[in-house]
Amino acid sequence: MDSSPQLRHILEAMADNDPTKLPTPSACVADEDFCLVPIGTPTASVSKEVAEVQRLLKKSGIKYSMHSAGTTIEGSWDQCMTIIGQCHSMLHANGVVRIQTTMRVGTRTDKKQSFDDKVAAVEKLLAEDK
Amino acid sequence: MDSSPQLRHILEAMADNDPTKLPTPSACVADEDFCLVPIGTPTASVSKEVAEVQRLLKKSGIKYSMHSAGTTIEGSWDQCMTIIGQCHSMLHANGVVRIQTTMRVGTRTDKKQSFDDKVAAVEKLLAEDK
Amino acid sequence: MDSSPQLRHILEAMADNDPTKLPTPSACVADEDFCLVPIGTPTASVSKEVAEVQRLLKKSGIKYSMHSAGTTIEGSWDQCMTIIGQCHSMLHANGVVRIQTTMRVGTRTDKKQSFDDKVAAVEKLLAEDK
Amino acid sequence: MDSSPQLRHILEAMADNDPTKLPTPSACVADEDFCLVPIGTPTASVSKEVAEVQRLLKKSGIKYSMHSAGTTIEGSWDQCMTIIGQCHSMLHANGVVRIQTTMRVGTRTDKKQSFDDKVAAVEKLLAEDK
């Protein structure tokens, strides 16, 4: 979301008149966090599928970070959503018939904050405890 | 996801070679369920923002259903994701500086199942109890 | 959360001194919404498992409402969480080796608001459009 | 979930007869991942609240790991859920009137898998790519 006053006016007018014509946010900074679960696979292990997702993310060039309960990515709304959709398509192509993904997506207009910045902000507060 | 054998082959090859070129799923059948939370607003009430989202959904023409803990929409991956992105953009344009949305998104290739079908399948099983 | 001034003081002191001794919230009003997914089951259908969950909820006496992307329940924090844990235990006992549940849980201290109230508040705003 | 044949029988019988009497799972191994959002706070920053949650987790002695989009904890179902409920109570006591938490909770009976194990399993697969 650009903060130039002119663009702001245009976006406000669109939001009032026809929000279905609005662009999607230019940044999902810091917390598009997703966790993809294959359903109806013969095994309870999902590491194979998670590894395939990591390979796709690596190939895509997007900034990403895997943790034990999901993967966080950082980019524009459309970039983030397209890549997760491609993960679904890839696993479907590989034979997984049903997939459920849960996501937490954050956007903000007051500042740019990468996922490293977010963790750093909390760690700074915790460091003051000592 | 089309099930024609030819398209399947193409998708499988893309999944192997370069999944970042794959199309996103053509259908998020039945459970793109999302819940949008504004952060840093002066009041604990979110009904104003939820109402704005419902108006946008209505205007967009997408199939949707509001429940007390979110809204379920049904369409192609890109349609669903674009509309939710526009909800963020609209609220940002209206002055909300930070938004977090959580989603559950399901795709399947074995059958088309609308969100009404899903509830009906469970209710059919429960009806057999009597 | 009781709003009597005396109890507030006690809770504030506990929050400062040892929050690990705090009671859990007495109400998860309106949106403990959960969606349970079995992993490693032979079929992509989950309606059998969802039906079993509905039966348990009915038997428990808790207020609940199923929608296409999950089920919303209403009660104290411990009641809500215990019941969802029992759903996991029940499905495990029935042979499902792995389960993932996603939840949205809301608590508020400013007013009691049931899940019907939440939907009503939004519908009131939308009705004013006409 | 104990795997002794005797206990299995008892649990199966309870699941059939009255699942509302079942114990909750003894382990939420590896992915009780939660993200807590205060609603109606004057600022869009949530690092203060996240830091308070980290302090409570530290004090509680539970195994936990913060990442940029949430915190993962590991323990029995009741331990995990009670602590997150106490986080809500603590923030309420500190003046936050409304809180929404989203969680992904996993339980499995086929093996014990810590959150480090999960990441290691995926990284092992990825290492084989080279």
From TrEMBL, chains A, B, C, D:
Name of one Pfam family that matches: Thiamine_BP
GO cellular component: cytosol
Matches recorded under InterPro entries: MTH1187/YkoF-like, Thiamine_BP, UPF0045_domain
Residue ranges constituting the Thiamine-binding protein domain according to the UniProt record: 33-123
Gene3D superfamilies named among the record's database cross-references: 3.30.70.930
SUPFAM superfamilies: MTH1187/YkoF-like (SSF89957)
Family the UniProt entry places it in: Belongs to the UPF0045 family.
PANTHER family documented for this protein: UPF0045 PROTEIN ECM15
UniProt-listed NCBIfam families: MTH1187 family thiamine-binding protein
Name used for this protein in its record: Thiamine-binding protein domain-containing protein
Species of the source: Oleoguttula mirabilis
